[in-house]
Amino acid sequence: MAIRPAEQLIHKAAWLYYAHGLRQDEVATQLKISRASVAMYLRKARETGIVNISTSTQLFTDDVMARQLEDAFKLDSVWIAPENAYVADPSTDIAVLAASVFLELVKKGDRIGVAWGRTVYTIADIMSYADLQDVRVVQLCGNLGAPYSYRPDQCTMEIARRLNAKGLNFYAPLVLSTEALAQGLRAEPVIRDQLAGISNCDLALYSVGAVDADSHLVKCGALTPTEMAALRKDGAAGVIAGQIIDANGEVLDCGYNKRVISAELASLRAIEKRLMVVQEDSKFEPLLAAIAGGLCTHLVVGAHMAGRLLEHAGAASKKAS
Amino acid sequence: MAIRPAEQLIHKAAWLYYAHGLRQDEVATQLKISRASVAMYLRKARETGIVNISTSTQLFTDDVMARQLEDAFKLDSVWIAPENAYVADPSTDIAVLAASVFLELVKKGDRIGVAWGRTVYTIADIMSYADLQDVRVVQLCGNLGAPYSYRPDQCTMEIARRLNAKGLNFYAPLVLSTEALAQGLRAEPVIRDQLAGISNCDLALYSVGAVDADSHLVKCGALTPTEMAALRKDGAAGVIAGQIIDANGEVLDCGYNKRVISAELASLRAIEKRLMVVQEDSKFEPLLAAIAGGLCTHLVVGAHMAGRLLEHAGAASKKAS
DNA sequence: AGCCAGATTTGACTTTTGTCGAGAGCCGTG
DNA sequence: CACGGCTCTCGACAAAAGTCAAATCTGGCT
Q1: B79-126, pLDDT tens digit by residue?
Q2: Which nucleotide lies nearest residue A35, CA to C1'?
Q3: What's the number of CA atoms in the CB half-sphere (13 Å) around residue B136?
Q4: I want to staple B201 with a disulfide (CB 3.0 to 4.6 A). Which of A78, A133, A159, B113 is the partner?
Q5: Is the CB of residue B258 less than 8 Å from the CB of residue B178?
């Protein structure tokens, strides 16, 4: 930086423009700089989170379906992204909504747990900036040396960056070769502390993975397609923070899970607000499992998925009566 | 309304524009309306609080003086509005800052106590809109049939309106003719409930009044200039929510106070966040009294007042040592 | 001391946004 | 059923904001 015109000026410009409602040229006069500079400062102010522009997500919870889902599945809050009613790409729409919801749920001083996946990374990527200096973003599970850009640590750091918060990474692989090694690593002070700290989070953000050959676990080489198929037969219903869960949302008793370094489900359940975001329609079963396991209190889904969930709930209650 | 283009469309437009970042003409195409309408919807969205534009007040607390004041007076947070560095009118600057700070302190589900005065009304007047449906704004003291536009109930209602919140008014006069009548009225269920509810507030917003002929209490006819002068001799140092306090921030033992219907200071102190805003430099003594009485945890003042406070604190500590 | 590299600032230009008055649709009323 | 009154909607113009390449400045380095 030349002479750090930075912060101070950016803040002043943002203040005059957004809080006092002056025009850019008036701000320029006040600050004795050119209007072009003001425009640039304002952009920086938005990018830094010095100014916050947020739109209420009310409408998406006010939906009738959303209310029904909340009742049917005993969730605190459900947001439904209307399908193809809005912008072109439906999955982007869900991510944009999720990002808004997320920002609405975050409070100063919060500790936030973040898992990993394409969904989470997409959200991080389109999330607008905020200025939450005292927030901490912690990684919920170990890393994979994946060729992808949405590795667990990347998700964590990107979200921390957007929030202007501190990111706490997890310095361990997600999956180890042997159970013994995993146990040993879990006992390491650094890792143990990190794992123990997860239940202190105020908010968690994750998606749920499908149990098929397309799963990231397979793509990253943590499991072979054959192993995955076998797990599926043994009752695997979904993937949460790198762990395989059964249809009841409990950790599946399998060799793989024993080799994983990740947040215990009990720790996740201890987090007050658990925001789950599901983009793909194919993740119906996994989502049901996650909900059954109480792994989600706040839910963001597309209209189609919402419909399927309601249908399912309706059928279930009919069967019961 | 023609066919209620309302809410729904406004929200959609705001969503596409602010959350997705489309241009107005793109939004217009999507929604199949003219761009001019989009522009109008967006204005409404801002006015309704469907979109929120807020600028961080960080810089004003990061100030060295602010930190010193926090330490010297044991306050949670202090914001200092730079004098004549910014926009023309210094008192407006303080109000704009106060409004931002206020909005930053409000949380969903909060109960907010609001007193009255020119300062409070100015803040309400320039405060931007927000969408906090489950917030309640309660009036901290009785009303005066003043010719002014900043009557207690007006302050309360205006703030409630800006927040899209529910306003709870106080249906009693601030001052009665006799102590007996005041006592009787305080015992009335409606009034008693309102008074009792004050300590449940999460946030209070008020200023402090001066004890002189310019006081609102005099202008509104609650006290004559002569009475005011007499009270001053008896130790009156300031006015909080219509009550006279002494230099220690305690209720002054006087006939006037016994005839007032207002929040007890103990109730005010029970409120977690007490935001006090002082615009006029002449309110130095009253402010000191209010701080001494623990009536303020968060403070917004101008740079000049901040300087005087620090000077005072320095002198006091020097005397002590 | 002089020069380079990086970043900021600026003026001029283009694009985007705000606003106004006119026109059109809807509703309750006479 | 025609008539204001009302709001919403649109097109066109004016104002404001965004952008880019060139000019300028800074501090560090040789």
Answers
A1: 999 876 555 566 788 999 999 999 999 998 999 999 988 899 999 988
A2: C10
A3: 12
A4: B113
A5: no
A247 in contact with nucleic chain C (CB within 7 A): no
Distance between CA atoms of B229 and B262, rounded to whole angstroms? 22
Beta pairing class for B51-55 and A51-55: antiparallel
Residue type, A272: E
Helices A24-31, A6-14: axis angle to 10 degrees equals 140
Contact at 8 Å (CB) between B272 and B111?
A: no
Which residue is closest to B128 within chain A, CA to CA? A19
> How many Å separate Cα A99 from the centre of its chain?
8
Residue A303 to residues A93, A247, B167: CA-CA distances in angstroms? 11, 23, 36
User: pTM here?
Assistant: 0.86
Chain A residues whose CB is inside 8 A of the B49 CB are 56
CA proximity to A176, closest of A149, A143, A148: A143
Q: Where are the beta strands (DSSP E) in chain A?
A: 51-55, 77-81, 111-114, 136-139, 166-168, 203-206, 236-240, 243-246, 273-277, 298-302
Q: Which residues pair with B277 in a beta bridge?
A: B300
Q: Could you list the beta-strand ranges (E) of B259-308.
A: 273-277, 298-302
Chain A closest CA to B20's CA: distance in Å? 7
Taking the C-alpha atoms of residue B277 and residue B287, their distance in angstroms, rounded to an integer, is 9
CA A185 to centroid of chain Cα atoms: 26
Of B69, B22, B49, residue with least CA distance to B291: B69
Q: For residues B45 and A166, what is the distance between their CA atoms, to the nearest angstrom?
A: 33
DSSP-assigned beta bridge partners for residue A251: A245
Condensed to tens digits (0 to 9), the pLDDT of residues B174-233 reads: 989 899 999 999 998 888 999 999 999 999 999 999 999 888 888 888 889 999 999 999
* Strand C atom within 7 Å of A2 CB: yes
Radius of gyration of chain A (CA): 22
* Of the candidates A83, A80, A159, A75, the residue with the CA atom closest to the CA atom of residue A117: A159
